[in-house]
Design goal:
Radius of gyration: 21 Å
Distance between the termini: 32 Å
Number of helices: 17
Number of domains: 1
Oligomer: single chain
Shape: globular
Structural class: mainly alpha
Helix content: 55-70%
Largest sheet: 2 strands, parallel
Strand content: under 5%
């Protein structure tokens, strides 16, 4: 994998910040064609066809294995269904940003449906995720609510050291999530979205609505699956196991988009939108088939440049951004197990003084 910027140059640039870098996103947004910020009903419809067809195919495959007792193939079916759940989630993700279609009522209705198979309460995720976009890589933190960057923001050395002394179990759980990101993704869903008291009053009623839709929706789907197969285990095979596989994909994308030794985290006084959305977002480019099935969510910088850009315009917006003067600041690399292993091994705790990640071993020796 060859990053856009050489590491030595990047370290110098990001820690000091050359004067010509903007603080806002006005310039980068102007480099993108205006039509790419607008929803397109035909493209949205085709995305729905692709996503739902993929998911129905995965369900048909699972049904065939269960019907003819090919139990040894069930893990393959779980993997396929979990991958298709991710496709639906990406569509729901755009609905939450009101970028998928012009009509927000339809966006929210579709978003609730698309999120059923991943076990996410739509409005709760929408509000917490919008906070992530508003504060990307800002070290501002408040565990009493969800209105901060809650997507793989690392503990600082000071926070982690304090946690080890006061609540060692929480420190241990934090370590487990860094070594096994799907656990972090699963806990994030529970901690950020299952506590309505973390949301402001104007959001809370909608959060409760999403809880009801999620529970009733899953109950209805479960009843249908049991009736279709005649087996209660259908709930496990069609919903639970694919939902767990989805957590792999969820952590894969969110972790790699926002965890890298090539990006930085900032105190509120030093943060600005350009640092957070452009300099601190990483494109981990997938093989073409996976990128297509997941609607190019691996191309993440344009999405952080503006959440108004729908998934079906990401490739074009990405091309425009790379051609602009701001393209040199885009951080990216092609899929690489060695890169993934490097981040997993080294990106644990943020050292504010050194302006870099520390491993847990380094943090424990301080």
């Amino acid at each position: 994998m060859i990053p856009i910027l050489e590491k030595s140059e990047r370290k110098k640039d990001l820690s000091t910040g050359p004067s010509e870098r903007p603080a806002t996103l006005d310039g980068p947004r102007k480099s993108i064609r205006p039509e790419l910020f607008k929803s397109n009903a035909k493209k949205a419809f085709w995305a729905v066809v692709v996503g739902t067809t993929f998911h129905l195919f995965s369900f048909a495959f699972l049904y065939w294995m269960i019907r003819y007792d090919y139990d040894f193939l069930l893990p393959l079916g779980w993997l396929l269904a979990g991958t298709s759940v991710t496709s639906l989630f990406v569509l729901g993700h755009d609905c939450a940003h009101a970028s998928f279609l012009k009509n927000n009522k339809i966006n929210d209705a579709l978003g609730h449906f698309f999120f059923l198979f991943s076990f996410y309460p739509y409005y709760a995720w929408k509000f917490s995720h919008n906070a992530h976009h508003a504060h990307t890589n800002n070290l501002l933190f408040n565990e009493k609510d969800v209105y901060f960057d809650n997507a793989w923001i690392p503990f600082t050395l000071k926070q982690y050291s304090s946690l080890r002394k006061k609540t060692p179990l929480r420190a241990a759980i934090y370590r487990y999530t860094r070594y096994f990101p799907p656990l972090g993704s699963l806990l994030h869903n529970l901690i950020m979205h299952a506590y309505p008291g973390k949301f402001i009053d104007s959001h809370r009623k909608k959060v409760y609505l999403s809880y009801v839709v999620l529970l009733l929706g899953l109950a209805g789907i479960s009843f249908g699956l049991v009736a279709l197969t005649g087996k209660w285990t259908a709930i496990l095979h069609f919903l639970v196991m694919p939902g767990l596989v989805f957590q792999f994909w969820m952590s894969y994308y969110t972790y790699l988009h926002h965890t890298s030794d090539e990006i930085y985290f900032y105190q509120p006084s030093d943060w600005n939108p350009y640092k957070g959305q452009i300099l601190s977002t990483y494109n981990f480019l997938n093989p073409k088939l996976i990128s297509y099935l997941h609607f190019h969510i691996d191309i993440h910088t344009p999405h952080h440049l503006s959440t108004a850009i729908p998934c079906y315009h990401l490739k074009e917006a990405y091309s425009d951004l790379l051609k602009s003067d701001f393209g040199k600041d885009v951080k990216e690399g092609k899929f690489s197990l060695s890169y993934l292993y490097k981040q997993w091994k080294s990106c644990h705790v943020w050292d504010e003084e050194g302006n870099r990640y520390l491993t847990f071993s380094e943090a424990h020796s301080r």
